[in-house]
Amino acid sequence: MTALRFDDVRFDYGAGPVLRGVAFTLEQGDTMALLGPNGAGKTTLTKLVVGLLHPKSGGVWVGGRTTQGRTPEQMARQAAYVFQHPDQQLFARSVAAEVAFSPRLRGLHEDETRELVRDVLTRTGLESVSEEHPYDLPPAQRKLVALAAALAQQPQVLVLDEPAQGLDRAGISRVTAIVREVAAEGVAVLAVTHDLAFALETLERSLVLVEGEVEYDGRSQDLFQDETRLWQLGLEPSQVALLSRELDLPGRPVRVDEVTNAIARLAAP
Amino acid sequence: MILGFVPGTGALHRLHPFTGLSLAGAVVVLAFALPAPGGAIGLSAALAVLGLWSRLPRVLRTAAVFAAPFWLFLSLIHVVFGDDPTRALTVGGQITAILLGFLLVLASVHPGRLVDALLEKRVPFSMAYLFAATLQAVPRLQARAGIILDAQRCRGLPVNGPPWRRARAVVPLTIPLVLGALAEVDQRAIALESRGVGTPARRTPLAPPEDSALDRSIRVSLLILSAGVVLIRVIG
Amino acid sequence: MSIQFESLSFRYPGSGSEALRGVSAGIDAGVVTLVTGMLGAGCSTLLLVAAGLAPRVTGGDRQGVVRTLGHDPESQEGHHALAGRVGLLLPTPWTQLSGMSYTVRDEVAFGPANLGWKRDQIADAVDQMMALMRVEDLAQRDPRTLSGGELQRVMFAAVAAMDPDVFLLDEPTIELDPRGARLVYDLLPQLAEDKTVVIASTDLDRAVEVTGRALLLDRGRLVADGDPREVLGSASAASMGCSTTIAGIMRSAGLEPVYPLTVHAALRRLGR
Fold first, then answer.
1. How far is B179 from chain A (nearest CA, A)?
2. Is residue B25 exposed (0-12), middle (13-18) or buried (19+ Cβ within 10 Å)?
3. Are strands C3-11 and A213-219 parallel, antiparallel or unpaired?
């Protein structure tokens, strides 16, 4: 069963088209970066996934069910959204309570909730601060709390808005690890990002949206190896990709680990 | 729901900011001083016409939404469980008139032009800005509340349905709202300072509000009308 | 020296630890100066102190000496003397909005208007800066309806429109798409020719291409100051994660510090 499907989706806010016939599918376990210039319609697209907005024409299906006529709170069992600025949603007395919010709303048994919260906190590295007040934590950790809370929704589709922003390298690595982990468990992940290096490392596929239209839908690696295409789309090659090209590495790898290994071999005495 | 300034070019928008404020003041006075119940009802009707003529129908709708629960409450107390429909009409009319007056003025007085008008009268910038910012506090809160509402709904928070269910929504909605609003106060002070506010220079008005003869005569008329009505009420 | 810090220490109100400890440095026009460190190292605080907003607006306790354009920004005299001469750009553009403008044009004009400029002077500055930041087509838009990236470019224009002598840019491209980020970074060296430009950034891959001097902060302390190649290519910077992607790769691949920061430098290091 397809995790997410956009079928010729059109949308506008009343002042000119924002999405013009967007179509793509995400299977279970797929990870996709949503790229494109500011104002291209990326945030609008993500809101259509969770039912905050509904298409003017065309359809959005999550886990085989249409979003038509469904509210975000109804969609919450299938799709979870991690907003760019977590302070917009944190309110509980403790991190654990924050993460337990969704499961409790779903009506999960208290034992199951506890179990789920423990699991999620471990994955996100937040066990040590589980009893802290979210607002006492530094901003980067609050972002992880918001991610943890979304994971606790046990969604089929996880939507992330700029997940790498405001995090240091360690934080970004953790997010990358979490994305890979949940994808392996069958969750489809869609992430809006301007951080091309993050997209390349974490998300297998890339969808490039320009002025409301899909200009590229394919493997991230393929896109980032095609410098001409990148410039055309208003993107740019990552430092890693440039290095790989300049060194003419075999296979022209663009992932950090592959390039690192290749260089280690080159530099070895 | 329109609880703040709406850019536009209608009649009310073209008034000088002080004229708008005078209108709000006059409405309050007239609502209570005019003979009940016809006075307040008539005033509401007049304001509704003014709102339509000024191309602000959404403001009228907002006023109606806010006034509705009051009318319901008043009908219950004075009509269903009482026998004083006049009282219901009077109080209802007064509330409606004041709501309409305030919302229409809020929607048509551009905060920037208000600040410029106040500065022209030698009001210190910090006070002028504070006044204008307060008027826009509600739309800002509204925008913030909307974002928080979206975020919590996406986590499964039901916002429609029976009252007990809606009550659960209060904490997850108000805490981020209040904390966010408080944080914003700090940030705004820094932001304003970074934009040249709080220095001895006299701010140049970007679009100096013209105080036309029409404006002045409207204000004078409102003053005379309000004073006259009060006088008649007191004497009669 | 445009900006001078001597044994600067700063503590936010109610904070157990110091945000800045004994920082001494002098910053001038001519090159783009980068301030970087791990999250919470004190980079934003340093900019706020130089701008005279910490502790005057933030509250807190400042020790040591700070001079911006020859004045102590904390004093009343300094505050007035520096009006409009220090352009601080916050990383969160929506918090820097005036709240009184309903068009982008008015928003950009807000600063110059507050400085009492003549109306035609204001119009020229607004036109120029909006063109520079490529936001002319947003001129009549309500700032509240703009995306984060559009707003950040508008705010840059708004701050630049005041024609300050000192630019203090806190993560100026964090909301921008790659094209927008490139636009801003390409501008900086030219800007730095006449103005003092200090940028706090964690986008080191881009920053190193335009920076002439780097200050590295670690938990409030200035631990390195000088040539970006040495500061950011050092073992300590790389181990803190405060270096470029290329440097990180070189380190992981087993090379010795000082790590090359750019593709170009990496090629030289590898003998190509």
1. 9
2. middle
3. unpaired
Instruction: Report the pLDDT value the prediction gives residue B81, as an integer from 0 to 100.
Output: 84
According to DSSP, the residues that pair with A219 across neighbouring strands are A205
CB contact under 8 A, C147 and A194: no
- Of the candidates B151, B158, B171, the beta carbon closest to that of A88 is on B151
Two tokens at B207?
């679009």
What is the DSSP annotation of A138-149? -HHHHHHHHHHH
> For residue C236, what are the CA distances in angstroms to A237, A263, C231, C239, C259?
28, 22, 9, 5, 11
Contact (CB<8Å) A168/C205: no
Interface contact A256, partner C, CB < 8 A: yes
Q: Is C270 on the interface with B (CB under 8 A)?
A: no
Class of the CATH domain delimited by C1-85+164-227: alpha beta
Task: State the burial class of residue A2 (Cβ atoms within 10 Å of its Cβ: 0-12, 13-18, 19+).
Answer: middle
Q: Looking up tokens 């790389």, which residue turns up?
A: C238
Interface subset of C 40-69, CB within 8 angstroms of B: 48, 51, 53, 57-58
Inter-residue contact B131 to B114 (CB < 8 Å):
yes
Here the ipTM equals 0.89
Given an 8 Å threshold on Cβ–Cβ distance, is A88 in contact with B148?
A: yes
Percent of chain B whose predicted confidence (pLDDT) is above 70: 100
Residue C223 CA to residue C215 CA, distance in Å, equals 8
Nearest CA in chain A to B148: A88
Distance from CA of B178 to the nearest CA of C (A): 16
- Least Cα distance to C158 among C211, C85, C104 occurs for C104
Pick from C99, C55, A136: nearest CA to B184: C99
Which residues in chain A touch residue B152, judged by CB atoms under 8 angstroms apart? 89
A61 Cβ partners below 8 Å, 6+ apart? Answer: A2, A4, A5, A7, A67
| Structural tokens at position A12 | 């506008």
User: In 3D, which of A53, A34, A33 has the Cα closest to residue A44?
Assistant: A53
DSSP symbol at C71: B
Contact A126, A141 (CB under 8 A): yes
Kindly report the number of other CB atoms within 10 A of residue A70's CB atom.
16
Report CA-CA distances (Å) from C67 to C5, C10, C45, C70: 7, 15, 15, 5
Domain spans, chain C: 1-85+164-227, 100-163, 233-272
Choose the mutation target among B141, B142, B190, B197 for the interface with C, i.e. most C CBs under 10 Å. B190
The pTM score is 0.91
pLDDT in tens, A189-212: 999 999 999 999 999 999 999 999
Mean pLDDT for the stretch of residues A29-47:
93
Question: How does residue B107 score in pLDDT terms, banded at 50, 70 and 90?
Answer: very high
Domain residue spans of chain B: 1-109+209-236, 123-205
Query: Residues B141-152: what's their mean pLDDT?
Result: 89
User: Within 10 Å of residue C23's Cβ, how many Cβ atoms?
Assistant: 23
Q: What's the confidence (pLDDT) of residue B38?
A: 86
User: Cβ(A130)–Cβ(A94) under 8 Å?
Assistant: yes
Which residues 88-127 of chain A have a CB within 8 Å of chain C? none
What sign does the CA torsion over C133, C138, C144, C147 have? negative
Nearest residue, CB atoms, C267 vs list A246, A259, A261: A246
Q: Does C76 touch chain B (CB under 8 A)?
A: no
* pLDDT at residue A269 is higher than 70: no
